[in-house]
Amino acid sequence: MNKEVRALAAEFKAFLSSREEDDLTPAACNQAAACISATGEAASDTTPSLLPSAAETQPQDHLTIEFAHVARSASTGSHCAGNAPTASAPSKILPTAHEAAAASSLPGVRCAEAVSMQTAQADTQDKTEASHSLMQETPMTPQEKQAALDQLAEEIKNCRRCPLGQTRLNAVPGEGNPAAELMFIGEGPGFDEDHQGRPFIGRAGQLLDKMIAAMGLKREQVFIGNIAKCHPMVNPADPQARGNDRAPNAGEIAVCRKYIERQIAIISPKYIVALGGVAAKALISDTKSLGALRGKFHLLHLDTVELKTPVKILATYHPAALLRNPGWKKDAWADLQMVMAEMGLKRPQA
Fold first, then answer.
1. Rounded distance between C-alpha atoms, residue 189 and residue 174, angstroms
2. Less Cβ around it within 10 Å: N or C end of the chain?
3. pLDDT in tens, 314-323
4. What single DSSP character describes residue 238?
5. What is the mean pLDDT of the chain?
């Protein structure tokens, strides 16, 4: 070191020896510099820098500073969190250009007040998010479910999003217990349903009622609906003709499926019985035959809504198919018995 730098270093050492370590954090140094500047004690522009340049600094040059550790009262200065002196061993300051550049880039230590404010803000945000999550997870009451289903039914009745809505007589939203543990879902309304606006009230509906009763339940205890909410007809120009029914096509199901999915989400059943291959494939999202899908439970996954709790779905024959093929009733009954076992139901005594 040249004489000028050594002299300055000696003054700097004497200055530092009278200070505490926590006075030398970036924030404290900046504050001290501001105070010095305000009192007119700042060095002039011609005063050499306290930290020598890279060209002047050698790797072995350093100063060893002995800090005086004097207890400070809580009211003295503004301390930053985590900077209180904890040891009396001497600290070393290495005024190399590399370390000086690194020190100048430090963001400074956040003070206790700032930390406290940020912690309070984080706590408030966590409580808000927890409250919002709790509101989302809080189960709806049966009355709230019924109100939501009624509102959705009005939306369905006003729907004209596909050609079925242009030719139907009445939309058929569905009906039953808004808090049902079990739902029966078919493919679409037929002639009788189109005329009355209620699901499964024709001959197939009468057989479904008997199937439900055989399980030890009443129609009013379950919810009954369809994938398509309007009557799919072979000849849409003649809605008064019987025998004019057909299954909904893929496009009609795609347009209408959001309604049944929203009903499922509102009711939140534990089990669904899909009646017939069209409903089973649409809800299970599998192109296998009904024979391959039935006889076991599937976990329901919906396209347009997220289920809060898992729902098991089982496929079986449509009541209309059972009227045409009475020999299938034995297999359909076996399917229903699987649901009964899961729900803890017993067949009523004759």
1. 10
2. C
3. 999 999 999 9
4. -
5. 77
